[in-house]
Amino acid sequence: MFIKGVGRSFLGQLFLTARSAIPMVRRMSKLSPKPLKGMSDISSPEVEIWQALEYSARSVLDTYTYTEVRTPILEPVAVYTHSLGDTTDIVQKQMYAFERGSEQLCLRPEGTAGVIRYVSGLGPDGGDARLYYMGPMFRSERPQAGRRRQFHQLGVEAIVEPSPFLDAEVVAMQAALFSAWGIDGVEFQLNTRGSVEDFPRVVAGIRSALETHRGDLCEDCQRRMDQNVLRVLDCKVPICKGIVDRLPKITNFMSDESLDYFRTVCEQLDSLGVTYRVNPLLVRGLDYYQHTIWEVTSSAIGAQDALSGGGRYVMDMGGKKPVEGVGFGIGMERVIMALSDERKASLTRKDKPLICLVSIGDEALQANMQLAAGLRDSGCRVSMDLSGRSMKSQMKRAGKMDAAWVAICGDSELAAGVVQLKNMAASEQSEMPATLDTLLAAIG
Ligand code: HAM
User: Fold this and answer.
1) How many C-beta atoms surround the C-beta of residue 39 within 10 A?
2) Distance 101 CA to ligand 1 centre (A)
3) For residues 298 and 175, what is the distance between their CA atoms, to the nearest angstrom?
4) From the first residue on, what is the mean pLDDT of each consecutive set of 10 residues in the chain (444 residues)?
5) What pLDDT is attached to residue 8?
6) With contact defined as beta carbons under 8 Å apart, do 103 and 76 qualify?
7) Cα(227) to centroid(ligand 1), Å
8) 85 with 286: CB under 8 angstroms?
9) Is the shortest distance between the CB of 311 and ligand 1 below 6 Å?
10) At what angle do helices 46-63 and 164-181 cross, to 10 degrees?
11) Which atom of ligand 1 is nearest to the CA of 330?
12) For 245-298, where are the alpha helices, taking DSSP H only?
C-alpha cells in the first residue's frame, strides 16, 4: 500500500502494510551483524567525540538561553508533505514512509517540521520558543562519503517575533558553535529568498529568463523549470552553471522591504564580526524558507561539503496561525569529518586516569571487588579482569586500556594486607597497605 502525496520514484521502495510486512520480512531478509547500508553503529572511542561535541554545544546554546526539545522520530507523513514542499527531493524520493493500520507514517527526514508541529500545538504559549534538538534523521539517498541514510543533526529553531536582528543572532550562534568545537576554515554563505509575497515575482522572473535556454538545461533542470525553478540555480551540472551565471539575481525581483531586511541582517553580522559571503545563487532545497537563508561549507570534507544549512521560514501545521521561525541544522557526521586528527584526539582524552586491579587467585579477586567498589564510590575510573586469567594477560589488558595505574593483589599481598601499585607511565612499583585511603592518596 503506497502513500498518496509521496513522490513517484519513492513508490519503488519497500512499502508494505503492517499485516503483510512480517511474513514477507521473514522470507526475504538475511540476518547479518552489519547495520543497514548508509547507517552506522557508533561506539567508543568515536562516540566520545560525539559526547564531547554534544556537551560543548549544550553549554554554548545555554548561554543563548535555548532549551532542548525531543520530538518523536516517527511522525505522520503529512508533517513533511505540508511543510517541505511536494516537489522537494526529500518528499519525492527520500522519505522512509510506510502505512500502519490507517496511519501514514515516516521516519523524520529533518528536524524543523516536527518542532514546528510541537510548537503549533502549544497555542499562544508557543510564540516565544528558543529550542534545540539532537538526534537521528533518515533519508533514503545513495550513500557516499558524508552522505548517510541515517545521519544526525544538531538543530536550532527560534520561534520568536520575526526580526533581522534575530536572524543575525542565530547565524552568530552557529559561528560560536563551530568555534567552540575547534573547526576552522568554514565558509558561511548567505542569501535571501525574499518574502512570501515576493516569491511569485521571483519565480516568474527566473523562469522567464531561463525560458530561452530550456532545451540546453540538464534533464533534471528541465523538470525543475516547471516544478521548482529556483533549484536550477544551484544545479552542479556545468552547462546549467554556465546558463545560471548569466541570469539576473533573484534579489532583482524582490521588494525594497525584503532588501532592507537582508541588508540589516548583513550589517548586524558585520558588527558581530561574523565573516560570510553573499552567494546570490544560494536558494536551499526546502520550500518553507523565506528571507534569510544560509549554508556553511568546509573544503576539508569532499564533495558533500555542507556542514549545515538554515534559514527563516513560515510553516502552517494546522495551529491557529502559521508559525514563523529561524533556525539551522548541522550534520554531525560531517562536523566530525571536518575535525583535525589532533582535535579528535583531544576530545577523546579522558580527564580521569584509569586504575586497573589485577587479582591472582579467587580470594584476591574477592578482596579487589571490594576495593574497586570503594574506589568507584570515591569517583575513580576502575576496571578489573574478572575471569581469573594469568597475571601476564591481565597486565597486557591494562596496557591496552591505557591504564595510568595498576594495583596488583596476589596471595602473598592478600596475606600481608598490601597491594603493589604500579605507575605505568613511570614504570615504578611500590608496596602499600591495601586500604582505600592509602591508594587514593598514592594516585592523587
Ligand atoms: P538540510 O540542509 O537538509 O536542512 O540539512 C542540514 C544539514 O544536515 C546538511 O547541511 C548536512 O550537513 C546534513 N545532512 C543532510 N543530509 C545528510 C545526509 N544524507 N547524510 C549526512 N548529512 C546530511 C535541514 O534539514 C533543515 N531542517 C535545517 C533548518 C533548521 N532550517 C531551518 N531550521
Assistant:
1) 14
2) 30
3) 13
4) 45 44 62 96 96 98 98 97 89 95 97 96 86 98 96 98 97 97 95 96 96 94 92 92 94 98 98 97 93 96 94 92 96 97 90 94 94 96 95 96 96 93 96 95 92
5) 42
6) yes
7) 22
8) yes
9) yes
10) 140
11) 7
12) 256-272
Q: What whole-number distance in Å separates Cα of residue 290 and Cα of residue 418?
A: 72
Residues in the chain: 444
User: Is ligand 1 within 6 A of the CB of residue 327?
Assistant: yes
Hey, whose CA ends up nearest to atom 29 of ligand 1? 328
* CA 310–ligand 1 middle distance (angstroms): 8
Rounded distance between C-alpha atoms, residue 124 and residue 137, angstroms: 29
Secondary structure (H, E, C), 213-255: CHHHCCHHHHHHHHHCHHHHHHCCCHHHHHHHCCCCCHHHHCC
φ, ψ for residue 306 (rounded to 5)? -85, 115
The grid coordinates of residue 167 equal 536572524
User: pTM for the full model?
Assistant: 0.91
- The pLDDT of residue 260 is 98
| pLDDT reported for residue 16 | 43
Dist CA 268 CA 168 (whole Å): 6
Q: Cell numbers of 306, please?
A: 555542507
